[in-house]
Amino acid sequence: MDLNLAGRHALVCGASEGIGRAAAIELALLGADVTVLARRAAVLEDVVAALPRVAEGQRHGTLVQDVADTAALDAGVRAALADHPVHILVNNTGGPPGGRALDAGADDYLAAFQRHVLANQTLAQAVVSGMRQARWGRIINVVSTSVKEPIANLGVSNTIRGAVASWAKTLSKELGADGITVNNVLPGYTRTQRLEQILRDRVEATGKDEAAIGAAMLASVPAGRFAEAHEVAAAIAFLATPAAGYVNGVSLAVDGGRMQSL
Ligand SMILES: NC(=O)c1ccc[n+]([C@@H]2O[C@H](COP(=O)([O-])OP(=O)(O)OC[C@H]3O[C@@H](n4cnc5c(N)ncnc54)[C@H](OP(=O)(O)O)[C@@H]3O)[C@@H](O)[C@H]2O)c1
Predict the structure, then answer these.
(1) What domains sit in the chain, N to C, each tagged with a CATH number?
(2) Hey, whose CA ends up nearest to atom 42 of ligand 1?
(3) Which among 48, 119, 185, 186 is least surrounded, fewest beta carbons within 10 Å?
(4) What pLDDT digit, counting tens, does each position of 191-210 carry?
(5) What's the whole-number mean pLDDT along residues 133-152?
(6) What distance in Å separates the CA atoms of residue 109 and residue 114, rounded to the nearest whole number?
(7) What is the H or E stretch that residue 25 is in?
């Protein structure tokens, strides 16, 4: 099986921590040059310093951007990566705040649309010419199992994840003939600061202790444990490899078997 990414360049967003950082590590381990993107410059420098270098001439870099600023994101990515075309784009950023769908305001929905759909679209447009030139590309979106099964009290997130999944499926049909695949990874409960925040929110909302909340969440997970970020990252990295070249337009859940749907 060909898992070699030497000579390929990956742009990994939301890579200062959590699933994004873990994806950067896995992609670097397969030989890719990796550019990590997020808002915190100092944290990104630490991430890059720790990234594996396994291939000759492999080079990593940082790109400090706020994906909520569409115009700056477009200009920044195009300028920074003009001489280093991207072959693998991992679209990923922090999830929208929790709450009921009906209670969210127009600004909440617009902010989530900007950070997820518009950011993904802007990044894809900025890098697709390099992929087309190489006749090889991978666009991988980190979304959520809520694409298939909406999660209670994550109204804005559920809505926007569905939009990202529809955008990705459409793009997979538009770009397939160029040797570019577009796929989604749907993490289940994964040990990152996002999960810690969700646990804290539920403790606050219910008055129950964290162990009880965690146990209730795990009751729905056949694996009986939360995922580690590297387990989700492994699926992202696989979709980036030559071996996954005929996998296109899918939403791959990495959830320990939690989802009910087929
Ligand atoms: N963890 C889970 O259990 C779980 C389950 C299902 C879905 N997901 C989804 O999977 C994605 C990744 O999750 P995670 O747990 O790894 O999240 P995380 O630990 O909160 O990390 C989010 C990353 O995104 C970056 N980021 C946030 N806002 C940004 C912005 N405006 N511009 C640029 N970068 C930004 C953060 O870096 P900076 O702060 O440095 O910018 C950080 O590197 C999220 O969409 C999350 O909702 C997670």
Answers:
(1) 9-191+228-254 (3.40.50.720)
(2) 14
(3) 48
(4) 999 899 888 988 988 899 99
(5) 97
(6) 9
(7) helix 18-29
